[in-house]
Specification:
Layout (H helix, E strand, L loop, with lengths): L5 H21 L2 E7 L12 E6 L5 H9 L17 E6 L5 E5 L10 H17 L3 E9 L6 H12 L4 E6 L6 H15 L10 E2 L8 H13 L1
Parallel strand pairs: 2-4, 2-5, 5-6, 6-7
Antiparallel strand pairs: 1-3, 3-4
Bound molecules: guanosine-5'-triphosphate (GTP) and magnesium ion.
Magnesium ion binds next to helix 2.
Length: about 220
């Protein structure tokens, strides 16, 4: 009998991880609570994966796509929909949590409200001991903006490891996607806390979702 070559073994291992992550997410996923201030955070009993990114980038939609639920996190055409830290539990008993965060860079929100979100997000990201990984979402139509760079710098300084996820890839041509992805990847390499590989996703079409699901489970549970 011939031995499978290494890349084939790797592919099988990846498939196994994706299948097992899909099984986990097809089980219990439940909204836990919404924290408008730090004092309302749940007890830090399990690892957490945070979703952050500019307003309207697709954080809530990505959370829905990963969990295979249509509307467990509220997505909306109105930017600024998510205003608190929303915690979702995965597994029975709970194995880890997903945290949907308010978006940054939303120009139309009142300055005071923006300041409040920013402080909430930053304090959580900097201080949460159980934070296993952060996903920084970037709209594949726009690439990195200065507000994203600021967020990445803050995460670098806090030594919070993050994965960069390009969203809405169904909205761009393949050639444009490649150009934006290369540019973002080049910049990501200069950020010490960023993972070198990008995740290209479409919550709408399902692209990249299975692989990201496996990565999230790996980050949370090791
Ligand atoms: N075509 C397409 N549209 C998407 C995708 N992901 C999100 N959207 C749309 O983008 C808009 C914003 O999505 P949300 O998931 O609410 O974005 P958010 O980052 O949670 O926004 P805030 O909570 O306001 O910060 C909605 O109209 C979604 O339907 C995608 O992969 N493809
Ligand atoms: Mg949202």
């Amino acid at each position: 009998m011939t031995q499978p070559d290494p890349s084939e073994l790797e592919e099988r291992e990846q498939q196994r991880r994706e299948d097992s992550a899909a099984r986990l997410f097809s089980g219990r996923v439940e909204f836990l609570l919404s924290a408008p201030q730090l004092k309302f955070l749940p007890d830090p009993t399990v690892p957490e994966i945070a979703f952050c990114g500019r307003s309207n980038v697709g954080k809530s939609s990505l959370l829905n796509a990963l969990t295979g639920r249509k509307a467990i996190a509220r997505a909306s055409v109105t930017p600024g929909r998510t205003q608190e830290l929303n915690f979702f539990e995965v597994g029975d008993p709970t194995q880890f949590r997903l945290v949907d965060m308010p978006g940054y860079g939303f120009a139309k929100a009142p300055v005071k409200v923006v300041e409040r979100w920013k402080n909430l997000v930053k304090s959580y990201l900097r201080g949460r001991q159980v934070l296993a990984r952060t996903l920084v979402l970037i709209d594949s139509r726009h690439g990195l903006k200065d507000v994203d760079r600021d967020m990445m710098k803050m995460l670098d300084e806090a030594a919070v490891g993050y994965r960069i996820v390009l969203t809405k890839t169904d909205k761009v041509k393949a050639s444009d996607l490649e150009r934006v992805a290369n540019k973002v990847a080049d910049e990501a390499r200069k950020h010490p806390a960023a993972y070198p590989e990008l995740h290209l996703t479409s919550s709408e079409k399902g692209m990249g979702i299975a692989a990201l699901r496996a990565a999230v489970v790996q980050d949370a549970l090791g």
